[in-house]
Design a protein that fits this description.
Layout (H helix, E strand, L loop, with lengths): L1 H4 L2 H22 L1 H4 L2 H21 L4 H24 L5 H5 L11 H16 L10 H21 L5 H22 L29 E7 L4 H5 L6 H7 L3 E4 L8 H10 L16 H7 L3 E5 L6 H8 L5 E3 L14 H16 L5 E7 L19 H21 L7 E7 L7 H6 L16 E3 L6 E4 L8 H8 L25 E3 L4 E3 L6 E2 L2 H19 L3
Helix pairs in contact: 2-4, 2-5, 4-5, 4-8, 5-7, 9-19, 15-16
Length: 537
């Protein structure tokens, strides 16, 4: 055996077998993240054919070798991302690569995973058995037919086809972007003269109450209700609120999520570009409100420019108290700045809208403030810490004069990204999409009559019109969403999740991926909206 190992051809053949065995093991391991056998079965079918193709054509010529190695590279890369992220590579991931530093909490695990993937990919290989041209062509045709069969029912489970989908999504995205850059439609397509008036403003509220809006980073509702009591204060807080059940995020990630809720519209790109239409805060500004937003990432130039372009009167920063991961504020620092800012605003006679996006629950983060149990699990720590810091804020709020004339609105930028850490901890909570889930929306004021409203799959495009309906504020607008207080309202958009990677219906609280014809029809309508964003008003 030792003498055979000295033979280069034998070693390369052995390495070929080893690298495909490692790829198969990696495929099986993805089950512990996805909890879906379909990923394994479809993946192993494709890996088998890639193995056959690899061993038949790698030494035919340079082009055949490139093709074989490319298929293997795609496969291993996709399975590595699936293992850590519970999803194949998506266009959304690639568009947010500039925020890679925000994943620093798991940098060791991600680095080791990447190194292992590269070792598997770059192990030297060779043809183990020979075949004539007819056999090679037959097997290639068989591979194509198998891929077509997979496409019929299991496309999103295929690592090879999911990679091809990125290219399709990019082509479609560029088409929409080019068309939106040359507006051909009038603003009248989305213009509305007024808002829904489905609920009367509570008599206990002053004419123009102050408003505090909290966007928590990536929070799915199931985390609040989990039996392990991860967020007990928020769960208790909900009992004193108007809350909305079966309420979904309309997009992903943060840059799309926050702006989309404030403007009740989709965002074309993951950038800091402004929306020129009407927003929640622009309408409140017309009503005499001072509008402010707290920047919890003051050293992040991209995010700072994004906030500056949202159209608030003031962006509040405190660079002297920033000690969190990725140069962001911890949730403790964020909530302290929030309550301090609220007290400062309350000194003026002018009513205020004060918003904040808390950063401490970002994917891969841990907490150095409060910790859950023995502190061994970073995922539980960060959400437990967020809950404790919210209680600090709420206690101060309720003990002050703010409680007499201020509304608290608690929600999130989007649902929790269902990566490996998430799926390991919530095995009983089935997620059909890593980017989409039910999310919280709570409205609170002193003396409120608690109520739970089932919105049956409507989404966060409804945030702005719901808040304005609650305040009895009417205005012309270009909102794609409708008030959640109006059970009979609804639009073609407020049950539709849309980001750079997915188009999914949440109607009736059921997750359904759109068919190709439905995608084209929906995107043609979204194109009209993006065109309106660019039009002169």
């Amino acid at each position: 055996m030792i003498s055979r190992l000295k033979d280069k051809a034998f070693r390369r053949g052995l390495f070929t077998i080893i690298k495909f065995i490692l790829a198969a093991v990696l495929t099986v391991l993805t089950y512990f993240t996805t909890r879906q056998v379909t990923y394994i079965s479809v993946g192993l079918v494709e890996l088998t054919f890639i193995f056959i193709i690899y061993n038949l054509i790698t030494e035919k010529n340079i082009f055949c070798r490139i093709l074989a190695c490319l298929l293997f590279f795609i496969y291993v890369a996709q399975m590595t991302v699936l293992y850590f992220g519970n999803s194949y590579v998506t266009l959304t991931m690639l568009k947010n690569i500039k925020f890679l530093q925000d994943l620093g909490g798991e940098i060791v695990a991600y680095s080791l995973g990447t190194i292992l993937a590269l070792v598997i990919i770059f192990l030297p290989g060779r043809c183990i058995f020979k075949a004539d041209k007819r056999t090679i062509v037959t097997l290639l045709v068989a591979f194509i037919f198998i891929e077509m069969a997979i496409n019929a029912s299991y496309k999103r489970f295929s690592p090879v086809q999911s990679f091809a989908t990125i290219l399709v999504d990019q082509v479609r995205y560029q088409h929409v972007k080019r068309a939106a850059a040359n507006p051909e439609v009038a603003l009248g397509t989305f213009h509305k003269d007024s808002l829904e008036d489905a609920v009367a403003k509570p008599a206990a509220l002053p004419e123009k109450p102050n408003i505090i809006v909290i966007f928590t980073e990536g929070l799915s509702s199931n985390i609040i209700y989990d039996e392990r009591n991860i967020m007990p204060n928020l769960r208790e807080f909900e009992k004193s609120c108007i809350s909305f059940k079966n309420y979904y995020n309309h997009t992903f990630p943060t840059l799309r999520g926050v702006q989309g809720q404030l403007y009740s519209g989709y965002k074309l790109d993951d950038d800091n570009k402004a929306n020129n239409l009407v927003s929640l805060h622009s309408i409140l500004k017309d009503q005499g409100y001072k509008t402010s937003f707290i920047n919890t990432e003051p050293f992040n130039d991209e995010f700072t420019l994004y906030l500056n372009n949202l159209g608030f009167d003031e962006i509040i920063e405190d660079k002297e108290n920033v000690t969190g991961l990725a140069d962001g504020m911890t949730d403790g620092e964020a909530y302290k700045l929030l309550i301090q800012s609220a007290h400062e605003k309350a000194k003026d006679d002018q009513p205020f809208l004060l918003g904040i996006y808390t950063f401490g629950t970002h994917v891969s983060f841990n907490s150095k403030e409060y910790q859950y149990g023995d502190g061994a699990n970073g995922f539980l720590n960060k959400f437990y810490n967020c809950d404790q810091m919210f209680k600090y804020f709420l206690d101060d709020f309720q003990e002050s004069d703010l409680a007499d004339n201020t509304i608290i609105i608690f929600t999130t930028d989007h649902s929790t990204y269902a990566d490996q850490s998430y799926t390991d901890l919530f095995t009983d909570h089935k997620r059909e999409c890593t980017d989409l889930d039910v999310m919280p929306l709570f409205i609170y004021y002193k003396g409120i009559e608690p109520q739970e409203i089932d919105v049956k799959g409507r989404n966060s495009l409804c945030f702005a019109p719901t808040v304005l309906d609650f305040l009895d504020i009417d205005s012309e607008n270009y909102f794609l969403g409708t008030s959640l207080f109006d059970a009979d309202a609804g639009s073609q958009f407020d049950r539709m999740f849309y980001d750079a990677s997915y188009l999914i219906s949440t109607e009736g609280g059921e997750i359904r991926y759109l068919e190709e014809l439905e995608k084209e029809e929906f995107l043609s309508q979204v194109l009209t909206y993006f065109s309106a964003l660019e039009a002169e008003r």
